[in-house]
Amino acid sequence: MGLFNRLSSRLRKSSAPAVQPAQAAQGQIVPAQPLKSKTLAELERQIELESRRNRPITVQAVPVRRNGWMGKLLSLSLLVGLPLGALWLINLPYAPIRRPIAENAPILLLPSYIQFDNNFKEAIALSEQATQLIDNPTSSVDLDVGQVVVRQAQERLDALPSTLRDSWHDDWYRWYGWRYSSTYFNDIRSEVGRLQVKVMQEQNAQTALVKAEQAIAQARQAYQQAQTPTDRRMAIEAWRKALSDLELIPSQTLAGDAASLKYGEASEQFRETVGIAAESEKVAVLIDNARQFAWQAAKAAQNPPHTVTEWDQIIRLWQLAISRLDNIRSDDLAGSAEAEQLLAQYEANLSEIKVRREAEADAIRLMREANHRIEQLTRLNAGSPSDFRRDYQISQLYSIINTLNQISNGTTVYKDSELLLIQANNRLNQLSAR
Questions:
Q1: Residue 205: per-residue pLDDT
Q2: What is the mean pLDDT of residues 91-104?
Q3: Contact call for residues 256 and 249 (beta carbons, < 8 A)
Q4: Which end of the chain is more exposed for a tag (fewer CB within 10 A), N or C?
């Protein structure tokens, strides 16, 4: 019905007479021209065009493209990273940064307290484990594991501040003091240092044991393959030196316990392989070594007087010479007789050196006593002394003279004591003449 009404209206409008513009302007009446009829399809097309012209224009909004997941991730990173970075900066182990925070907002240092507590607990546990592994090892594996554990304990200790009071506020230190002790911290650090040194000693002893065993094996093989007496003698010397190195390994180490067992077996094998000739040669070497030490001791004792330290060194040389002779076995008759003769001579020389050393020590002590009394006399008034003061000075001078007379000739202070003795006698004569 709507479409029919619109078509009727269009037909009525199109049937009205059309007036030419020019004729209408002149007031002339123009006869009506016949109308051209339109088909129904043409009318519908015309109505559709007019309806499109009168339809309001709608502008479709273009959607704004927003940022994707990268933007959200960046925003989240900034939101979380900035506070964490500030917290990390606050907890740096520097007093200029940490001290103001500890005084005003100590709760911000909670990560540092947690880290400190964990490191301290781990250092205690690791040091105890290392002590058990290193002090009571059952094999070299325990020492290797103990070395790793003690290294971890040292890393935990390095992560701790040297002193709490330089880094923490006093209130927080008192709160934490029930769990932390500076003395305990120092004890753990000393224990870790001791364990590190012991591990090094154990490793050195183990290395020495391996080298001694290899040297013994090489010397035994060289002796068996020797073609000349010179080669055999060199092999015997190398074998004997390897045995000596094996004996010198510290017995308090794990390698020392093994070395003490292997030394007996290696020595027995040496005697069985080399025989009496090697023993005689060993005696000759020991006697020669004793003569060398004795010569060094006699040379050092020349041109006295000597200090106490120098006399101690001379005594040590004589003792080394005597110890070489003591190692000679009595079953070697020829070598034993010569060793006994030298031993008597060396012990007599050692006794004489000890006497001279004691004389030097007594001379030093008497000289100090005399100088002390002389200093007391110099503090007295230099004016005319009273009878009491003069008697006191005379008694002190007699004591000084008596002390100086006890200093033996041949000591380092004997010449100085002679000069002081002359001065003391002169002063005594002056006071007695008054």
A1: 87
A2: 59
A3: yes
A4: N
CB pairs under 8 A, 24+ apart, for 276-283?
Answer: 278/236, 278/240, 279/329, 279/331, 279/332, 280/332, 280/334, 280/335, 281/233, 281/236, 282/240, 283/328, 283/329, 283/332, 283/334, 283/335, 283/336, 283/339
Closest by CA to 342, choosing from 412, 415, 387, 288, is 288
420 versus 228: the higher-pLDDT residue is 420
pLDDT for the residue 175: 46
Dig out the tokens for 117 from the structure: 């507590």
**CB hemisphere CA count around 70 (13 angstroms):** 2
What residues have CB less than 8 Å from 412, skipping those under 6 apart?
305, 306, 307, 360, 363, 364
Q: What is the pLDDT of residue 293?
A: 92
The two structure tokens encoding residue 176: 């934490």
Nearby residues of 106 by Cβ (< 8 Å), 6 or more positions away: 169, 171, 172
120 touches 164 (CB < 8 A): no
pTM of the entire structure?
0.40
DSSP 239-306: HHHHHHHHHTS-TTSHHHHHHHHHHHHHHHHHHHHH-HHHHHHHHHHHHHHHHHHHHHHHHHTSS---
Amino acid at 187: D
Compute the mean pLDDT over every residue in the chain, rounded to the nearest whole number: 75
Q: Which carries the bigger pLDDT value, residue 362 or residue 178?
A: 362
pLDDT digits (tens, 9 = 90+) for 310-322: 999 999 999 999 9
Q: What is the DSSP string of 397-408?
A: HHHHHHHHHTSP
Whole-number Å distance between alpha carbons of 116 and 156: 9
Under the banding of pLDDT at 50, 70 and 90, the label for residue 24 is very low
User: Residues for the chain: how many in total?
Assistant: 434
Helix residue ranges, H only, 16-94: 21-25, 40-54, 69-90
Quick check: 305 and 414 in contact, CB under 8 A? yes
| pLDDT single digits (tens) 159-196 | 776 554 444 444 444 445 445 566 777 788 888 888 88
Q: What are 102's two structure tokens?
A: 């500890």
pLDDT of residue 35: 47
Residue 173 CA to residue 424 CA, distance in Å, equals 65
Give the residue among 182, 179, 239, 192 at the shortest CA–CA distance from 212. 239
